[in-house]
Amino acid sequence: MLINRYLTGLITGFVLLLLFHACTPKEDEEHQFGSEETFALPMNSLPLENLDPFQTNGDNWVITGNVWSDHKSELSIETKEGSGVLVSLSESEESADIFSRLEHGDIELRLEFLIPKNSNSGIYFQDRYELQILDSWLREDARFYDAGGIYERWDESRPEGERGFEGRDPLVNASLAPGLWQEFHVLFRAPRFDDEGNKTENARFDWVYLNGVRVQENVELTGPTRGGAPGKEVTKAPFRLHGDHGPVAFRNIEYKTYNQTDSLTLGPLTYEFFEYTGDRTPENFNDLELIAEGVTDSFNVADLAPQDEHYASRFTGELEVPVSGDYFFQTGMYNGGNLYINGELLIRNTGEVEFQILGNTIYLEEGTHEIQATHFQTVWISYIHIDYEGPGIEKRPLARKPEAESTASEPITVHAGSHQPELIGGFFNYENEKLTHTLAVGHTEGVHYSYDLGRGSLLSFWRNPFADVSQMWRGRGHEQLLVPMNAALESASGIPLATLGWRGSLSEPWPDNTPGIQQYQLDGNERPVFTSEIDGITIEDLIQPSQSGTELERTLRFRSEDNRRNKAARLAQASSVELLPNGLYRINGQYYINILDDGGSEPQIREHDGFEVLIIPVLQESTQSEVSYQLIW
Hints:
The protein is mainly β and 633 residues long. It has three domains: 5-20 and 412-632, Beta-galactosidase, Chain A, domain 5; 44-258, Exo-inulinase, domain 1 (Jelly Rolls), CATH 2.60.120.560; 265-391, Galactose-binding domain-like (Jelly Rolls), CATH 2.60.120.260. It is built from three helices and 48 strands.
């Protein structure tokens, strides 16, 4: 469903009103058990100090410290001495694929890859089922042979034109420019076999994320894709990286392997319900009046409650653990409640900081353990939801919240207008934080961005399609976020101004007392120009598509009544800022900055507070300075 420009304008006006009524952020409880930052057990890393974790018949694979590739030069790749990066140089007639010594069945795999212009590679799960890697930058209609596609099967016995079949196109082209680091995150299911070796279930990809965007979902594979290992399908085999179709690099290869049988088993639970009118989890249930008790087989608090509101409950039972190891538990309790294992508090959720999803890890020996969940209810809905994950056991529910009636409907989406940009004010997620004063701008050219009106900064940028606003328009209790519909890359938060200290060092990456945007006005092309003022310096910020329409260009204008020799424009702050031989800066390996106008000052890379910062001094010899640069991704 499309939402028209009139409605988006209403949202924008509403958010501008909110600028005068900013919300005060709530602080987390001190000494809280459980964390909102932890969502799973850590993954295993495949070491890339040498080629020992792999086997290959080719001489094209090497371990290096870093790579770079000119995004305009076909098949270009340069390496830097060191370790941590696996590279296929494809410079020899002896080039070949490489196989992991790890053999896997079900596997969750996450890795980064770098593909040069017009190069080609792929990941064969179990040496048989290919997830494609290709330079698919800017391709409008991505096919099965593009990055994120699942390659087709092949049968020479079929009629001409029908020999390729069952290839699956990616749901969206989430590819970045050549020479940038891109990420796959995949959950693959191995085929299942009975005791006689007969296949009972096909292999499948549960999901595939490319650069944070889901590009495949629940794809069943009736057999190996083209180029897969010949012969029968198996329960375990290595994964294979394609290395003879052009140069490619891989790094940060992480995985979890899962078995098909083990799970936690929950025994009978005793339950108790108490009269309670508090607004946080009770400290002592023994002081409360008992109003109901019994035995149940699940944490079905809403079904068992003797009254609709104002009660507390406690569930106690036995948990059978099939294998020793670390177990991660995650709870979502409405209104709140705690989780105990063997009498020890594992997750504490008082409920006073609204609804929270919290997690924590505990080591459990094989055998029987006591589990207890407490809960309280004041108003609205009431449930206990518990997920867990363990050694060889993927995350799954131990207790489910009640299933809501299906309300699946067509998403509400906004696409950039054919004549002028779309402007949508609302909430936006940045670094896992919900920002309330933001503006998303969608351009006809297909390059979009979000802007923080509260701090005067570019938040993120992405390509077509533009925005999913379903959460903003449907129901209460959602996050109410505007969600980019393609891979969104995050910029550095904060006003684009740095303060230089003694001998040009960075004393602060940006001023602390950021006042936010005083106003924004639309230029002749209906594009917003943001204006802010801090420390006597006025900053104008214009972000627009480049002439080719494939990049964003940002122009920053600084004005002051006098020269401010200790100020600099801050273009990027990241864990990695690299000046490449072609003159571009690669930021976190994920996007390029091409400086178009440095205002007569030399760009500099400085270190500050554990980050690398790209700056250009401004207001050095004049009361006005202008800096402009392109974002390429």
